[in-house]
Amino acid sequence: MPTKYYLAFASSRDLEGAAIELLRRHENGVKDSHIPLMESTMDYFIPEMLDAFLVRTVDAIGLSSMPTKVVHSTADVIGKTAKMLVPHLLKKRSNKELEPMIGFVDEIYIRPEQADNGLASTGCEIDQATYERMKRVVAGIQAGEVQANRAELSELMSLTVDIMLEGFMKRAINLLKHGFVVRKIADGAIATCQAAGHGVVNKVFKKLDDEQMLHLANYFDTLILSAQR
Cα torsion for 87, 89, 90, 95, to the nearest 10°? Predict the structure, then answer.
């Protein structure tokens, strides 16, 4: 099996269980609507993603109260925006129409036996060059070369925002056909999330001291994985 590369977070038992059940129901041709289970899966996915990429980053770095507040409020904005969007995307969809989204769940669900860390994870695929760049910058900071890698890690944090939006949000939205109104709602939601994500990078992550940069690199390292799939 080929090696694939991801920005990913360890899935909770609830998220993994919901994904497995959704895939099982689809495989078995269950006639009942997949919408409730799809919504349940998203209800777990959205806060867990934000917790991994924003909230737990604060804990790892050890930020003061003001930057912490910025990160938490950003996570809240993105979370509410994404949860608002989900019902619009799924409303009145048949199981047949939902097949691309179910394929998407299968794609982002990394089984424990596939992941290099042995954990059930949810991941957004990245190319090998980006993976190797991230590992190189993280290793450089861990080796004490903070100043030499500071600007590039900041760039990678901005890139991470775009990768997550493209790989999780935009990709999922584009898998389904939408009318004009839903498309406008989706475009607005994406713009809101993108502005909020880049805002927290500029206000918080670009202003870290050397020790905080090391903590950020150590934590970021846990979000980069490879998988045999």
Answer: -170
Q: Which stretch of DSSP H or E encloses residue 125? A: strand 121-126
What lies within 8 Å, CB to CB, of 94 at 6+ separation is none
> Quick one: residue 39, left, alpha or beta (phi over 0 = left, psi -120 to 50 = alpha)?
alpha
Contact between 117 and 225 under an 8 Å Cβ cutoff? The reply is: yes
Give residue 136's identity as a one-letter amino acid code.
Answer: R
pLDDT for res 63 = 85
Beta-bridge mates of residue 109: 122
pLDDT digits (tens, 9 = 90+) for 202-217: 989 888 999 999 999 9
Stretch 145-169: mean pLDDT? 94
From the list 26, 5, 184, the residue with the least C-alpha distance to 104 is 26
Distance between CA atoms of residues 138 and 132, nearest Å? 10
CA distance 132 to 4: 12
What value does the CA radius of gyration of the chain take, rounded to a whole number of Å?
18
User: In sequence order, what are the residues at sequence separation of 6 or more whose Cβ sits closer than 8 angstroms to the Cβ of residue 176?
Assistant: 89, 93, 97, 100, 101
27, amino acid identity: E
Structure tokens at 71: 């990160």
**pLDDT of 64 strictly over 90:** no
- Helix H or strand E encompassing 8: strand 3-10
Q: Position 38: which residue type?
A: M
